[in-house]
Structures are given as structure tokens and as C-alpha cells.
Input
Amino acid sequence: MKIVVCIKQVPDTTEIKINPVTGTLIRDGVPSIMNPDDKGALEMALRLKDQYGAHVTVITMGPPQADLILREAFAMGADRAILLTDRRFAGADTLATSNALAGALKTMEYDIVFAGRQAIDGDTAQVGPEMAEHLGLPQVSYVVDLNVKNENTVIVKKETEEGYQMLEADTPCVLTVLASANKARYMSVSGIVNAYNREVEIWTADSIDVEESKLGLKGSPTKVQKSFAKGLKQAGEVFEVDAEEAVGIIVSKLKEKFII
Amino acid sequence: MDKSAYKHVYVFVEQRDGVIQPVAFELLGKARDLADALGEKVVALFPGYQIADSCQTLIEHGADQVICADHAQLKDYLTEQYVQVITQVIEEYKPSILLLGATTIGRDLGPRLAARITTGLTADCTKLEISEDRELWSTRPAFGGNLMATIVNSTHRPQMSTVRPGVMQKREADPTRQGEVINFEPKLDESKFKVRLIETVKEDKGKVDITEAKILVSGGRGVGNKENFDKLQELAGVLDAEVSTSRAMVDAGIMPHDRQVGQTGKTVRPNLYFALGISGAIQHLAGMEESDFIIAINKDKFAPIFQVSDLGIVGDVNKIVPMLTERLAQELKK
Output
């Protein structure tokens, strides 16, 4: 069984703060991490390695420093790592990103392609399904569990708003996974030591067969018109009073608003 | 591409077991604003099975036309089946704008569709407007809600956006509204159907949809434990409200995920939102700041929640809540 896992390096958005004076993001000192849903996907793949001896390749598109999450994937148990990096990929929206990743995947063999459902810096959940379309493969998103039925079929559990669905998918297929699907393993000590002796393959736009017009900024239908810090609304009155008085204030406010 | 060939604002109408999902009505309400700004029509794109009886309600909520694709293969949502039918509608009718709900269905369907027809898709928008040059401007949170970005797609059509449930407001149904229903016969290529639905399981987690509640009593870290949440439940009982929560309490296993408000939970806009012992991380604010009236109680007078609250009380939530419940019970008896 051959598996490819698409992962992304993201800033830990829970650590991002806003400069209250300028209203801009403070990115300095914000740690970069492997995107949590992607880690869930990698863990799901590594469990197939534990169970069936699957060969696990991780691939990421990003700047050279994204090498770090590939080393982390090695230390968790991945067998092969590819860094897709090229200035020609820069400025890509989800469609252009999916074109590049699909281009790389077209040169590879696999039974299952895993990706995280979404990345915490963009929260779009688009790259997995878009990539599946370019590859002409069936997709299931929001996957929380997986069982291999036979050589050509997997049974997956998909989380929905109301509960879950059980679906059967033919392989090869693309599955996008939630971080909550599992508890990802830690890097092993020997794995960490070895991770830096392993080879991360560097691929560029020349390594894949995709027209340049479909990559990077040129290949992106969506453009950012403007971005801005969210203006908070005007703060209301704040009272520092004892509990008795607080209750009185709340009740009179609810009356004023005709809520009671 | 000749953009002038693409016209009208389309809404993907999501149904589950034949029941139209609330987000579809919310999108029709917004689509009405956009179409009026463009001087174009609102078209409801409605795939499903045995759904003909529901078309009129889409018209009452703002659609000028309903494209009804009624087919046994479209009974339950499956990616490829739905992508095929919607692709055929897009190729035949050439919409300028297509809106989808940012649900587990819309977020699975939208990107697959965008890739098949080669266009852009903006996810989880909180604001949609028509620019002076008649483009769709879609504004969405980025970086975990830390930043807002306005996205345009001026080179491809249709312009596609998803919107989370609870963000837009639906219109009151107008039974006098007239519209046209077009029956669309999809030509489905079954050889491409590689995913089969085995079963759909609804889990009853004491589930109420918090996005539908008029009043939410929301507790966070400051509430702290299950016993104190029971006190919140009592307050909610008196006000006929629902209890919701912040991420911290879900991560701690005290409250279920379907009650979580915020970036990774649900977006709510009730008439009244009690933020009790919630400090107001930006991810939480992203999910509730559109509430009509916000009352916050927190020990820390510097808590960011007080930046968005309409009424703030610096104090011990676990002391104030039982007293408030008692007082409200008396008031409402009168």
C-alpha cells in the first residue's frame, strides 16, 4: 500500500496578537507548526503503516523553511519527504496550490492521498477537494476514521453537523482528515536524530508537468482586494459592583430591551 | 472570458432528507440584495429527490427562478453526483455568482466544483457586496479571525463564495411573491460514482441548534466545571434560552462541540448573548460579536470581551448567575 500525505506549515494562529495601536498583526515570534488537521492525516497514514506496512510519503508546498515539518514527519515515521518549493508557486490561491500539488502527485503512485481538512491560517478546506478533481479521484472530506475493506475499497467515517456518515470509497481516493480523528503520535527520539540525516527531495515547477499559467499568482482566480484588522465595535458600559447590584443592573437592562 | 455572458445570482439550496437547510434561506436573503444591486435575478439551484413541493417556499424567500433538479440519484448528497448536475446547470445557464452554505456539504461541493469549472472560490465569507465595477466583493476572516480580507475574482465566472450558517439574515416569507420553476433533467455519468453512502447517523447529543436560539447563555473557563454549567442551564431555563460555550470548555470535555461558539465552532447572532466567564479570545469573538445585545460577566476587568459587550459586569460569574436566575424567575412570575 502506498500513501501520500499533503501537509502544510502554518503560523500558530492561536499565538497571533494584534497591535492595538496600529491594528496590524504581530507575526514576530509566532511559532510555525505542522497544520493540526494535516497532522491528523499523517497519523491516520502512519497507522496504516503500522497495520499494513504502508509506505508513507509526505509532501508540502512552501518556502525552504517548510523543510522543518517534513523532518518532523520523518521523526513521526514517514518514509519519504518532498518539498515543492519555487518562486513560481508564490502568491498561489487554493486553485493554483491544488494545481501544483496535483502536478506533483501525477508523477507518483498511491492508493490513498491524505490531506488535512483545512489549514488554520486560511481555514478554506479547498485544496484537498480541488486537488482530487485535478487528479480525477473520488474524495471524502471531514474524515474521522478509516478501515481498509479490501485492496480496492476503504470504509470511512465522515463527521457531519448532525452526527456522521459511513461511506465506501474506491481507491485510489483523496481523503481530508480532521485533527480530532486521532491523537497524533510524538516524534520518537531516534526518529528526531535520524530525521536530520534523511534526504528531503526538493522539487520545483520544472519537476512537475503543469503549465506555468496555472501556478502561483498567475494561476489564481481570486485576489486579495484589501485586508484589514477587524474593527471592534464600540465597547458598552462596564460596571464594577457587588453581585446584588450587578443583578439589578442586568434586570433593568433586560426590561429596557423588552427581553423580559 | 466574456464576463457579460454570465448573469444572475445563484444560490445552491442545500436539503437533507428533503428538508431545506436554514442556510439556504439566509443565502436567498443575501442573494436578493446582491441581485437588486446588479439589476439581475435570484435563482435557486435545487438538487434533490421528490422536492417539487418545496420550490414555492424558495420563491417566497426571495428567488425569482428555481432550477429544480429532481432525480433519485440526488436524494442524498454525494460529491460527484452533485458536482455533475451543478456543472451542467452552470454550463447551460452561466451564472455570474454562485453562493453556497459553508456546511460540511457546501465545503465539500464548492471546491470540487470550482476546480472542475476553473474558477475562484472564497470560503466562509461574512460579508458580500457588489463593487462599483459590478464585481462581487467577498470579505472573510483569515489567520484564525485575526484579520479580515476582501477577495475578488475579476477574471473567472461564476464568482463563487461560501457563507457560514447564521451569518446572513433570511427574509420573511412573502406568500404573494411570484416566480418560475424550471425542471432540469441532469444527465448523470454513473461510471464516475466511486463513493457510496452506507448510512447516515444522527447523533442525539441533546442537540439543539445554537444558531437558531434567540437567547444564548454562554459559559467559558470562568464557569469552570459541570456543576456550574448546571447553574447556567437553570438561568437558560428561566429565559427560554440555550446554553453554549467557548472552545476551552469543549477541549476540557465539559461541553460538547456542537455547543461551541467561535471560529472553530458556530457563528451565532442571537438577540441576547450572555458571555459568562468568557475572556473573549479573538476566535470566540468571531463567532458571536454580531449578536444584537451582549452582556458579559468576567472577573478580569481587562478581559477583551468587554470591548464588544454592550453591558459589562466585573465580578464572579458563579456568584451572580444563581442570584440572577432567582431574580428573573420572580420578575417573570409577575
Summary: The two ends of chain A are 63 Å apart (CA to CA). The longest strand of chain A covers residues 139-150. Residues 51 and 64 of chain A are 33 Å apart (CA to CA).
